Amino acid sequence: MVICPHCPDQDDSFEEDTMNINSPPTLMKLASQRLLREEALAISALKDLPNMLFPVMFEEAFIDGHTKILTTMITVWPFPYLSVGMMINNLTLDTLKAVLEGLDILISKPVLSSRCKLKAINWMDTAHSLHGIWTGSHEVERLPEFMEQKQPYCGVKRELKVTTRLKLMEGSLDECATYLLQWAYERENSIHLCCRKLKIQGLTNVTVTEIFKILHADCIQDLELCCLCLEDLDFLNPYLKQMNNLLTLSLVEIKDTVSMDYARNLDEEKVITLISQLPTFHYLQELCVSDVPIIKSHLKECLRCLKKPLKMLCITNCALSQSDLDYLPYCLNIFELKCLDLSDTPLSHLLLEPLGFLLERVRHSLECLKLNSCEMGESQFNALLPALSQCFQLTELNFYDNKLSLLFLKKVLYHTAELSQLTRELYPAPLECYDNRDVILSHILENICPELLDILRAKRQTVNVSFATTECSNCGGAYVYDVETQRCFLDQTPLWD
Ligand SMILES: [Zn+2]
Ligand SMILES: [Zn+2]
């Protein structure tokens, strides 16, 4: 149990979050806000509205819930593609209905407006990396996104394609998803509801059966299965077998029984039967397994169901056996690995030579290595360091929360100093930064970090290097060394991913 010196006083006055500075609205935004104030005027102005104003005005109308304007905008949308990704958090049943009503007008009268070019609408949340591009002066740069449809072709051809992601939480869908599915089902001859991302958390067999009457399993590229038991996987297996285009599979909290009892021994026979029945994933590129006890001693069988070399392998918060590790460097499907993440998976009781061997084999492709909170000590690191310093493609490295002395941390840094592509590095504060009652000594971290950084800077430039203590058991904060100010600060919501 680690305690930060800050905690005994329980001082709650933290610095204001200064990250959230609103940028001033652009001229385009102001113009559309002005228009939206008068609905009738806005609707009549649409026919003369410059194309480049459409995305901005659509966003404003979506967020403020101007349903009539949204419906009309859909019928005259001047681009082949419309992405609702950025606004998805503002989705209400009313805005959804308004957009779908617009699509209904389109499919009932295909030549309604010569201006309308809409062929596909994307109803998925987009990656965070797009955040911020939309505001500010770069609006025009995002226009190409509305011109072309970047997603790969999935084989189902209809007049209009609606791409979406669906989340089945606690076995059921939210009201918007339910409405969208029903709507698509009633128009299945003219609309292709293309579900790219599916998350199933908790399972109700009837709901899954119903959903797959409407969805094409072939469309699913990204599947997350969460909080399920082995019987659930067994039930889903026929659907998994139809997901021929799956690129990413995440298995999170898969337990052997519904009771989710950790202490119970696994039903070995049941596990083996289930794994042997897993379908072959021909295109899978990313496999993420988190908190799945059944993987222990069965990694070999699990990785056998791959056909294409994996780009990303994450086995986090799991237990691995020595035989699992021994197999890894011999697995033929991971030689082109770009990302290996074993965070929160204890490795202290294992011999890591096979992992070193694996690093050697993937040294030409590996870009990201995460071994944070793996309970690794010096002997474990010693097994990895020779291979690690050959992984010249590495851009991201995370060794946070492993127990290293100052002397040994320096040794690690002499190795990673050779990796000139690194742009993000996170190292643990050495053991010297805690006293014998495990209270964090942040001043020591502050004093030693310049010397540690010098080891790296003697060989190369550093972009984003952090040294951080483990989290305080009381407040969850961790001391992080800030390179700019050369001071340690208590990060109350540290994010290590
Ligand atoms: Zn604390
Ligand atoms: Zn599709």
Structural notes for this entry:
With 497 residues, the protein is α/β, with parallel strands linked by helices. The chain is built from 16 helices and 15 strands. It has two domains: 27-147, no CATH class; 164-170 and 193-259 and 267-426 and 440-465, Ribonuclease Inhibitor (Leucine-rich repeat, LRR (right-handed beta-alpha superhelix)). It has helices at 27-36, 39-45, 53-64, 67-75, 93-108, 144-147, 175-186, 205-214, 230-242, 268-277, 299-303, 322-327, 353-361, 378-388, 406-416, 442-457; strands spanning 81-83, 120-123, 160-169, 191-201, 222-229, 248-255, 286-290, 312-316, 339-341, 368-370, 396-398, 424-428, 465-468, 478-482, 487-491. The two termini are 22 Å apart. The strands form two sheets. A 13-stranded parallel sheet has the order 1-2-3-4-5-6-7-8-9-10-11-12-13. A two-stranded antiparallel sheet has the order 14-15. It binds zinc ion (2 copies). One zinc ion binds at residues 4, 6-7, 472, 474-475, 477. The site of one zinc ion has 6 residues, from strand 4.
| The CATH homologous superfamily of the largest domain | Ribonuclease Inhibitor
Quick one: how many beta strands? 15
Physical arrangement of strands within the biggest beta sheet: 1-2-3-4-5-6-7-8-9-10-11-12-13
Name the overall outline. globular
Strand and helix map with partners:
Blueprint: H1 27-36, H2 39-45, H3 53-64, H4 67-75, E1 81-83, H5 93-108, E2 120-123, H6 144-147, E3 160-169, H7 175-186, E4 191-201, H8 205-214, E5 222-229, H9 230-242, E6 248-255, H10 268-277, E7 286-290, H11 299-303, E8 312-316, H12 322-327, E9 339-341, H13 353-361, E10 368-370, H14 378-388, E11 396-398, H15 406-416, E12 424-428, H16 442-457, E13 465-468, E14 478-482, E15 487-491
Parallel strand pairs: 1-2, 2-3, 3-4, 4-5, 5-6, 6-7, 7-8, 8-9, 9-10, 10-11, 11-12, 12-13
Antiparallel strand pairs: 14-15
Helix pairs in contact: 1-3, 3-4, 4-5, 5-7, 9-10, 13-14, 14-15
One zinc ion binds next to loops.
